[in-house]
Amino acid sequence: MTTLLLVRHGVTDANRGGLLAGWSPGVHLADKGREQAAALAERLSSVPVAAVVSSPLERCVETAGALVAGRDLAVETDDDLGECRYGDWTGQELKKLAKDPLWKVVQAHPSAATFPGGEALRDTQARAVDAVRRINERLGPDATWIAVSHGDVIKAILADAFGLHLDLFQRIQVDPASLSVVRYTSLRPFVVRMNDVGGAVDDLRPPAKRSRAKRGSSDAVVGGGAGGP
């Protein structure tokens, strides 16, 4: 199975100022955001990853840069992991946008929301999920990789993995510098972590390879014999 580590970028001044940054250029990590990225990089340092793919926006690239430190990897960027294109809403205060009639649609019926001069949330989800599937295919079923993206994009990917309609994605919370984990199999995705902001990550390391004899013994116990499960 391919294991995807979804990382939201660290805190920015736009986050703290209540602004919808969107694709605005020049939005960088705040000091707190850099600390968050470094702390997450330290937590994940023992987890081997095949790639780190980031939204092209500065706040994500800076977060991804912390995650590749000490690894023989370069940060890749993919526009399809970029923020939703909020169009005319870009750069505006959230408290002002909350008075727009479209705000209620975004909160209650997001699959019907198209931002003026921007894109539809359903299109954001489609391109992001397609990107994940495309990169999964490229890296292979045994790979673990990191995608650094944005809150709404990660929520949309998680909603798809849960099998939830996009109209329910606002029930998912994704904090700055949080870690969410999805394992993709040929049968279905499995969400194994969501909005994780601290703690051990030992369970994300690949299991030690066992000898065929040990595997056979273990399988016999799991399968059970007479009187078994």
Commentary on this structure:
With 229 residues, the protein is of the alpha/beta class. The chain has a single domain, classed as Phosphoglycerate mutase-like (Rossmann fold), CATH 3.40.50.1240. The protein is built from 8 helices and 6 strands, in the order βααβαβαααβαββα. The chain has a 6-stranded mixed beta sheet with strand order 3-2-4-1-5-6, with helices on both faces. β5 (179-184) and β6 form a beta hairpin. α2 (31-43) packs parallel to α3 (58-68) and α6 (121-139) packs across α7. It is globular and about 60 Å long.
What's this, in brief?
The chain is an alpha/beta fold and 229 residues long. Helices cover 36% and strands 15% of the residues. It is built from 8 helices and 6 strands; from the N terminus they run E-H-H-E-H-E-H-H-H-E-H-E-E-H.
Keywords:
229 residues, Rossmann fold, 6-stranded mixed β-sheet, 8 helices, 6 strands
What is the count of helical runs? 8
Largest sheet: 6 strands, mixed
> Structural class, judged by helices and strands?
alpha/beta
Radius of gyration: 19 Å
The percentage helix is: 25-40%
CATH superfamily: Phosphoglycerate mutase-like
